[in-house]
Amino acid sequence: MAQQCEFCGKTPKSGHRVSHAHNVTNRKWNLNLKTVRAATAGGGKRVRVCTRCLRSGKVMKPAARTAASIAAKPAAKA
């Protein structure tokens, strides 16, 4: 699974870790991704979203699931 926000498309950035003696080694800045349920055309879906998109309101929560809506779904095929 890719380290990528499904809303803004942000990916990890690479650069250098620089010590006091100016020794340069490679490093990577990863995203702060959270798995949340978001509203989509077909209802709710689990997506991986960066915290900036969560804070800014780009992610809409799906309608609350009720006992009636869960019972109305057909049983999964085994």
Any overview of this molecule?
The chain has one domain (1-60): Ribosomal Protein L24e, Chain: T, CATH 2.30.170.40. The chain has 2 helices and 4 strands. β1 and β2 form a beta hairpin. The strands form 2 sheets. It has a two-stranded antiparallel sheet. It has a two-stranded antiparallel sheet with strand order 3-4. Helices cover 15% and strands 36% of the residues. The mean pLDDT is 87. The protein has 78 residues and is of the alpha+beta class. It has helices at residues 51-56, 67-72, and strands at residues 13-18, 24-29, 33-40, 43-50. The longest helix has 6 residues, at 51-56.
List its salient traits.
alpha+beta; two-stranded antiparallel ribbon; Ribosomal Protein L24e, Chain: T; 78 residues; 2 helices; two-stranded antiparallel sheet
Q: Can I get a quick summary?
A:
15% of the residues lie in helices and 36% in strands. With 78 residues, the chain is of the alpha+beta class.
Q: What's the arrangement of secondary structure elements?
A:
Elements: E1 13-18, E2 24-29, E3 33-40, E4 43-50, H1 51-56, H2 67-72
Antiparallel strand pairs: 1-2, 3-4
Largest sheet: 2 strands, antiparallel
Percentage of helical residues?
10-25%
What's the CATH architecture?
Roll
End-to-end C-alpha gap: 26 Å
Q: Structural class of the secondary structure composition?
A: alpha+beta
Within CATH, the superfamily carries the name: Ribosomal protein L28/L24
Q: Count the DSSP helices.
A: 2
- Secondary-structure element sequence? EEEEHH
Counted beta strands? 4
Uncertain runs are: none
Strand order of the largest sheet: 1-2
State the shape: elongated
User: What does the radius of gyration come to?
Assistant: 19 Å
What is the typical, i.e. mean, pLDDT?
Answer: 87
CATH topology: Ribosomal Protein L24e, Chain: T
Under CATH at level 1, the class stands as: Mainly Beta
Strand content: 35-45%
Total domain units: 1
